[in-house]
Specification:
It is built from twelve helices and 18 strands. By secondary structure, it is α+β, with helices and mostly antiparallel strands. Strands 16-15-14-13-12-18-17 form a seven-stranded antiparallel beta sheet. β15 and β16 form a beta hairpin. It is globular and about 60 Å long. 51% of the residues are buried.
């Protein structure tokens, strides 16, 4: 058990933006919301998963929709209380703690905001270890946990509670309502007891985000040594490509950001080309037409000068980035994990090959 204050929020937001693999929303927007909540309501207690009683009710809080929409259509601050009361009424008991559902810019911050404003602790666990675009894409689905009852509320005060037959149906129905509400809403789903959370959750994700963020911040402040090499060391990452963005194809469709970014090589990659496809999160990276990495491994774009993560909604012509691959949480590499979030689900006609296998020999 420890406290999360403004300093920790700065580091968590930066580290989670990297683990978001391009998605999860604008880290700047989420960070401002969390800092404001801490200043008004005080620091948040962060619990280790093992500190949570097995029978306690733990509830994730998240933003659903296209990250580009949230940048212009923010929350009003009352959504968390509405979701709390909705879930409490359904179960007939109090919520013990909140938790993030994924690592990512906004969705690493919203549970902190909710915990601060409602005076509840936050659990150091999530259901992805990264970010994915659809609601059913969590480790709890593999464990047989139902996404519903799911609460959904928009900034105008409209609220809905879903009870669906599968987690995929939850995604389909909630996505339709999200579109009707303007493409961005706040949700609470996968309410579970402490025992289930401990068994299937990705533990210590908040702490990992904080440590990554702190390392990246110190990296940016350093002016000596091979900074790129040290970045790859602290992230345990694989360098896939380095280039200048020469084209970005992006559209908001079905409350998702779909698109593709095209890169021309710089430095040792001069004369070569790469592209990355995304659906909120980066899905497939290709170098000279050959696949370099796919989901469920993480594909991250970082600024070549500052090594700051660049989310998909911030991609723009002329920006110089390094494409980095990170290994995913081990459960995603199981057969059930590949069925849920593997490349074929997203329309990429290839089997999943772990990134370390693709990178044997040191390059694509």
């Amino acid at each position: 058990m420890r406290k999360i204050g403004i300093k920790e929020i700065e580091d968590i937001a930066l580290g989670a933006a990297l683990l978001g693999a391009g998605g999860g929303g604008d880290p700047y927007v989420g960070k401002l919301m969390a800092i404001g909540a801490i200043r008004e309501c005080g620091e948040v207690t962060l619990l280790d998963p093992d500190e949570v009683p097995d029978d306690a009710l733990v509830v994730p809080i998240a933003m659903m929709g296209a990250p580009t929409v949230l940048a212009e259509k923010a929350v009003n601050g009352n959504e968390y209380r509405t979701l709390y009361e909705t879930v409490k009424a359904y179960y007939g008991r109090d919520i013990y703690a909140f938790m993030p559902i994924e690592a990512g810019g906004v969705n690493s911050m919203l549970p902190i905001v909710a915990a601060a404003r409602l005076g509840l602790p936050l659990v150091d666990v999530d259901g992805m270890g990264r970010a994915f675009p659809e609601l059913q894409m969590v480790t709890f689905t593999i464990g047989g946990v139902n996404a519903t009852p799911m609460g959904l509320v928009d900034e105008k005060g409209n609220s809905v509670i879903f009870k669906t037959i599968t987690n995929k149906w939850t995604e389909e129905l909630a996505r339709s309502v999200t579109m009707s509400c303007g493409g961005s809403v706040t949700v609470s789903l996968y309410a579970m007891d402490g025992a289930t959370m401990k068994k299937y959750g990705v533990k210590n994700i908040v702490t990992r985000s904080e440590r990554l963020g702190s390392a990246l911040k110190n990296l940016k402040n350093s002016s000596t040594g091979d900074v790129e090499k040290r970045f790859l060391e602290v992230t345990d990452g694989f360098k896939l490509f380095k280039g200048k963005i020469v084209d970005v194809l992006r559209e908001t469709r079905g409350a998702f950001n779909f698109g593709r970014v095209v890169l021309e090589g710089i430095a040792e990659y001069k004369g070569r080309k790469a592209d990355v496809e995304f659906q909120n999160e980066n899905l497939v990276a290709r170098v000279d037409g050959r696949i370099a990495a796919t989901v469920p491994d993480l594909i991250c774009l970082v600024d070549t000068g500052t090594f700051t993560p660049v989310p998909t909604d911030a991609l723009k012509y002329g920006k110089r980035v390094m494409v980095v691959g990170l290994k995913c949480f081990e459960l995603w590499r199981s057969d059930a994990g590949i069925d849920l979030v593997g490349p074929r689900y997203f329309g990429c006609d290839t089997d999943y090959i772990p990134i370390e296998k693709r990178m044997e020999g040191g390059s694509v």
